[in-house]
Specification:
Blueprint: E1 2-4, H1 10-28, H2 35-48, E2 67-70, E3 76-80, E4 90-104, E5 111-123, E6 131-142, E7 147-158, E8 165-177, E9 189-195, H3 199-206, H4 215-230
Parallel strand pairs: 1-8, 2-9
Antiparallel strand pairs: 3-4, 4-5, 5-8, 6-7, 6-9
Amino acid sequence: MRRKVSLALRALMVASLAATASIAHAQQGPGGGGDDESAAKRKKRDAEWNQPKAPLMQLRNAGPCPFVKVLYDASRYIEFKDGKESAAQAGFTGEIQSLSSGCAYKGDEPIRIRIEALFQLGRGPQAQGDKHTYRYWVAVTERNQAVIAKEYFDLPVSFASGQDRAYTRETIESIIIPRADEKVSGGNFEVLIGFDVTPEMAAFNRDGKRFRVNAGQAAPAQQAKTQAGTTPNP
């Protein structure tokens, strides 16, 4: 399943402009005479990177890619019937298992990012039906600062008959971050992904709580084994 998202919002350009001003000041230093040196470096870099045209994901970048990661508080989704945190009360569940990403930009071009996310989804004892629509989001932020742009996506899932787990891979394409000029590095930004969770789910994740897949079956199985061991032979 593939999703396409473009987060090229004007707010990103404002952030880029602010980052540019900060970087330019740092490069010039107190004497403000770094222009000649910077121009020479740019000329050399452009000569080195004058490569033949290639598909987006094969281009060499003019700098580091934005950090792409799962927000821990929103990395897992788990419903509990009546708010009771136990395996027996679990409904639909989900977890973002892995991420892979790539980016491309050069000169003063926008940063283009592509993400692939692997979702593991589950049906607990209290799940109703074999279909469920999960919801997740993708956000762009200034690194370690406020969210600049955020978009939500629905993830409909059908569980096969008799199965309590399903896997799906989402490809999120065309995430675009404008840059004011070539001095703005991808390292100034982060791309975050997570489930649309309730405050209770976020707190559950934050506390590091989790259940094994077979947690709801372990207790009855152990109980049956104990009873069999203590029942006298006829």
